[in-house]
Protein 1
Amino acid sequence: DTEVTQTPKHLVMGMTNKKSLKCEQHMGHRAMYWYKQKAKKPPELMFVYSYEKLSINESVPSRFSPECPNSSLLNLHLHALQPEDSALYLCASSITPAGNTEAFFGQGTRLTVV
Amino acid sequence: GESVGLHLPTLSVQEGDNSIINCAYSNSASDYFIWYKQESGKGPQFIIDIRSNMDKRQGQRVTVLLNKTVKHLSLQIAATQPGDSAVYFCAENPGGGKLIFGQGTELSVKP
């Protein structure tokens, strides 16, 4: 199994809503990542989890709250988002947290904030 | 800040021709580089990687070249096919567990 699975594929939420994005991998990878991608732009790193602990937060606003319940799961909790937060949210995983091995990406969650 | 960038935002080639996509990086500490292909509505897909102790690496129809002297990375695609049409990103590992993406090149293959 070399898949990173993200749910939901599409999400529309209001600015007062609370929602969560989910990511799952069963490759035994010990690093997991959240990226944000706007149209026609490269993915931007948001968070890195290393052995289930948050190791990197790229100064992401607190309305985005990551969680890693176990080595296979990664969540991104969303609250009080703004329309400019609309984007494709990508999850990735890699064997080690060193950043020097291939990162496998999921298909992303297309988020629209209204 | 330091960043990874691409020389050409768009590239249009004829089917069967070879394609060359370039990338400039500025972080001299980066020791690992990846090329990703991203099709519309999908996540980035790994194509090939290279470590800083290598100058060249070949895969199936693809070759990555690394020139550390001028901090330049290129992806060569042989006999480009319509299915190769996508946005191509280079990414670098500057250390600290990060993987940072460059700006991307959109490759369009004309039949």
Note: Chain B touches chain A through 25 residues (CB under 8 Å).
Protein 2
Amino acid sequence: AQKVTQAQTEISVVEKEDVTLDCVYETRDTTYYLFWYKQPPSGELVFLIRRNSFDEQNEISGRYSWNFQKSTSSFNFTITASQVVDSAVYFCALTSWAGTALIFGKGTTLSVSS
Amino acid sequence: NAGVTQTPKFRVLKTGQSMTLLCAQDMNHEYMYWYRQDPGMGLRLIHYSVGEGTTAKGEVPDGYNVSRLKKQNFLLGLESAAPSQTSVYFCASSYGEGSYNEQFFGPGTRLTVL
């Protein structure tokens, strides 16, 4: 069975701090895909990134970066120099190539104060 | 493009009442999904559809029915609402085959069952 664990339920930081959101996954598939979604207070889900299991290169997009390590089954998300607008719930999700739906973690609530 | 839209945005039902949630997408996506989001639980898949006229059960299908009569629409029905169905419901759609493609989410429907 597939499973996604986001052990950090809530994180609070002060603006400009760096913060890392952890994501650990379980799957028996050799081909799979990992996602991060952001859910701001307004409630919609915003796609951030998709990574396939064959691409272990780290990804950087502005203040966001992702570290994918198959050896530890982790796909961690780091926000550099956090801002108040980063306050949201962040979900990590997993699916296999033949999968029918995303398996979501329970989410990490990030609060950034000024 | 409107993307994925959901109707209604809010609804309050009494136990035993029925209702239908409508999801519409204008991106010509084949795959459509219904999720529910409960506090501390992340998103869980209720039903999904891989094309017009086809539907399948997800992780938590009990108490719900779905129909996909038109490619652009995916309906979620509650025949006899129960308080346990109080939740936020999200519809999503994706292009191509397989859940490994990016899913585009609607804004959500907040349902309260009294």
Note: DSSP finds no helices and twelve strands in chain A.
